[in-house]
Amino acid sequence: MRKNFFTLVAVFMAGLVTSCSDTAKNKIKVLIADGPQRAHKHEDTTPVLKQILEKSGLFVVDHSRSTEESSADGSYKPDFSQYDVVVVNEGFGANYWPEATQKAFEEYMAQGGGMVSVHAANNSWPTWKEYNKMTAVGGWDGRDEKSGPYLYINSEGEVVRDTSPGKGGSHGPQHEFELVVRASDHPIMAGLPATFKHGPDELYDRLRGPAENVTILATAFSSTEQKGTGRHEPALMTIDYGKGRIFHSILGHHVEQIKEGSFVTTFQRGTEWAATGQVTIPVPADFPNQKF
Ligand code: ZN
Asked: What is the DSSP string of the chain?
């Protein structure tokens, strides 16, 4: 009898372990990568990005932070192959990843990995050529016409690749702006309203880069009154890199901006799409006013 009891307990415990690992196994594995940078507080934003993903119930999230030392001595080498998607929360002035880590990431992406570029991640690493293909466009840190064309949508709704010389990357004061959906049938955008508000946030403009294999999902009009360009600037994008998928959002300067419904839903759905090519996360009925 006693033996049977222990057998039952053992079977019960084995069942628990199996069901826990099954649950984790069915979730999308995310790695958030960040590190020291100037102009943005990754220590504050990364935990909130993690919470946003976990709240959907769809993701398990790990975090990997480089240091000046581990970037310089080559010891920063997360195992990207363990993850369905890598969320890059790097920024202006970030230390370059070690060369072997850069190559490993390029290989991971080319073979079908997923990546999400959050806000200032498109400022990072202007001379890492393949990374700039993954983000399509970026800004600051010496970017100019040698980085590639400016990318925007003109008043006729046509995508423009403008090779005229000039610096890449600018923004006026933080303000509220409207996002205009440009690819309503894309899985990330399906079910979202045709236009929706975001901000106050920085509205990046004059981004430039290789701008290859990029789909503009949504734009924001950068008004000259807000020291912008008078152009419809790309705000949400997807990029194909080999077999890999990238979701690129210019939104989310700091914690209060990434807690906005407009960011939360597009980030969750964009991360799912980058990982799987599909989107199952629903659009909240009160989007973009839902509380996080
Ligand atoms: Zn910013």
From this structure: -HHHHHHHHHHHHHHHHHHHHHHHHHSEEEEEEE---SSS-HHHHHHHHHHHHHHTTSEEEEEEE--HHHHHSS-----GGG-SEEEE---TTPPPPPHHHHHHHHHHHHTT-EEEEEGGGGGS-TT-HHHHHHHS-B-STT-SGGG--EEEE-TTS-EEEE-------B--S-EEEEEEES-TTSTTTTTS-SEEEEEEE---BS-BS---SEEEEEEEEE-GGGT--SEEEEEEEEEEETTEEEEEE---SSHHHHTSHHHHHHHHHHHHHHHHS---PPPPTTTTS---
Q: How far is the CA of 258 from the centre of ligand 1 (A)?
A: 11
Query: Is 20 within a domain?
Result: no
Q: Is residue 164 part of a domain?
A: yes
181, part of any domain: yes
Compute the radius of gyration of the chain from its Cα atoms: 20
Residue of 24, 87, 105 whose CA lies nearest to 267: 87
Query: Model's pTM, two decimal places?
Result: 0.92
Residue 162, token pair as written in the block? 């403008």
Residue 202 CA to ligand 1 centre (angstroms): 6
- Ligand 1 center to residue 199 CA distance, Å? 12
Any domain includes 250: yes
- Considering its fold, how many domains does the chain have in total? 1
Residue 8 has a pLDDT of: 52
CATH number at residue 260: 3.40.50.880
Q: Could you tell me the distance, in angstroms and rounded to a whole number, from the CA of residue 75 to the centre of ligand 1?
A: 28
CA 248–ligand 1 middle distance (angstroms)? 14
For 219-275, how does the pLDDT look when each residue is reduced to its tens digit (9 = 90+)? Answer: 999 999 999 999 999 999 999 999 999 999 999 999 999 999 999 999 999 999 999
Where in the sequence is the domain holding 169, given as residue range(s)?
Answer: 29-276
